[in-house]
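Internal tracking record. Fields below are filled automatically when a chain is submitted to the structure queue. Please do not edit lines marked as system-generated. If the sequence contains nonstandard residues, flag them in the REMARKS field before resubmitting.
Queue: standard
Priority: normal
Entity type: single polypeptide chain
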Amino acid sequence: MRSLTIGRHPYDAVSSWFKDGKYHRDRDLPAIIYEDGQKLWYKNGKCHRGNNLPAVVFPGGRELFYEEDICYEITEYSNGSKEYHSTKGLHRRYAPAVIYSNGDVEYWESGRRHREDGPAVIIGNKQYWFENGEFIKCIV
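SYSTEM-GENERATED OUTPUT FOLLOWS
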C-alpha cells in the first residue's frame, strides 16, 4: 500500500495572506508562497481549493488535493488510469478512487472498497457491491 507523506517546509514563506488571523486568499490565488516556489491555497484557515484543483503545488509538479479536510494525491499512469490516495490508502468520497483508462471504476474509502448508494466496482457490465471492504453481491 502507498503512503502519503506531507512534510514540514524548510523555508520561510516569502508571501502569505490572512483574514481574521487565519490563512486565507480569494480569487483562486495561493495564500502561502515559499521561496522554492511551493504554493498553498487556503480558505478561512483550511487548506482548500475548489474546482477539483490542487490545494498544494510543489516545485517539480507534485500536487496535493483537499476534500472535506482529507488530503489526497492523484497518481496518473501513462495509460490514462488514475488513483486517488489519502493518508489512509485509496480514498475518495462520493466519487471513484480508481478510474481506469477504459472507463471501469472502483470506489474506495479509507483503504477499503466501499459505496453505499451503488456498486463499488464497475468492470464492463459487471457490478460488484462492497460496504466497508466487505463483499455484498455481484450483478452481471
